[in-house]
Write a structure and sequence with these properties.
The chain has 18 helices and seven strands. It has 488 residues and is an alpha/beta fold.
Amino acid sequence: MNSTLYFASLILLGMALVMGVHPLQDIFEYYRKTPADPFGHTGMSAGLLYAMVALIPQVAGVLILLNARPYTSPLLTRVVTMALGLLLFLGFCIPALVHTIQIGTISFFGILILISTLEIISQGYAATQTKRYTFALLILIITELLFVGAAEIGIRAMGTFVTYQESKHEVPVSPYYVPHRDQTFRNREPWTEQQVSPEFEQYFATNSDRIFDEEVPEYTLSEFRILVFGDSFVQGIGAVDETHVSATTPPEYSWTEILESELQNPTNNYLDNTPYKQVRVINAGFAGSDIVYEYNLAKDLLPRYQPKLLIVCLNISDISDIVRRGGEERFTKDGSTIGRKAPFNEWLYGHSHLYRFYLHRILGYDLMTFAAPKDKRSEESHALEIITNKLFEFKALAEASNSNLLVVFHPSHGELTYGHFGLAPVFEAVSSQMNTINVLALFHNKGIGPQDVSRLYWPIDHHHTALGYMFLAECLVEEVIPFAKHHP
């Protein structure tokens, strides 16, 4: 019995090292990359706290095991020893499982420590076996609550499962929440909007047509008019410099504003050999919108604005939006949106990071779409099919309005970081039948890659910085000019 316990103690000590080395590596890696701010949002302080949460239970367990005789049978001790040995083997041999082992074993070690401690306390506390078992159950419950709380604190400190909305607003926001807007993603009346994140603050106001742009005058034949649809990247979220808070007008650093300025700048001679004297780029982007809303918005705005070119902007967030909202079935008869019903466990997800760890790392639910592993492929494929079909509907709508269509696929923060093109199936399905631009490829052609992410995207908010929007506009200028020169 003593030799078995001694062997279990050594395994516990080894597991403590496996669990502690990894967060310590994270600490030193973070400090190496950002020495000016070692105690930042995900910096050294969070790493140290996590390391302590991971190490303390194991070290305590070793000390107790070396100095006490656990109140267990030899069979249970051997089972515990084999289980710990398996965890130790997996931790060393499969690095990808280290995080899973770290949290999953904390509670398990708590039970082992409890069993070891019970013998010390119960020998002097309880004379009968019944009282001893009752006391053991009470200590078991208390210990488990303490270790679950410690795991929750550790995961929160690391910030691994903080949602995008939490990073901006510091409170959980349901991804299934649908604003009270119509089928074009607009309110019934003009409105103002404030966009706040830890890094910037912006104010927007709609015009009388309820889009975030200035009042648009009547169309004239001498104007090359471009109408742009998309989500927050079109609206211009993040299009501010470090000291600027935008007024209630379109931000001057948004790529639509830059594109308009570049196209009609007389020194660039872009309008030479065209029938146009000026360019107007109309911003019809809405934060949180997706291609289903945008198609309905286009049907409403095209007769009024008569653009010569429609630009539809897509990014990987359209997939998760469609998965959570569906296609046209999201709309009721009065035009309001019902979307899909939030899952029953959403409240628990919103308040427990330990549960998020269990849901995403153990059960394998997708971080973006919250789809179960068995449903992820089919739900994403269905969303990609809806996006593809809507683009062909956009093409038919543009042709019926005597307009050209340009589809812009622009990369998210993560896509530029890892070089992954999430909408590749859609791009491949439509690129031979309509005008398309893969901005990720254009970025790479200009030498823009992962090393530029911190300059082109806000670190927390993940929208483009003013510099990022400028690069995006520069990529599109040369692609847009041919439509002005060859439009009938």
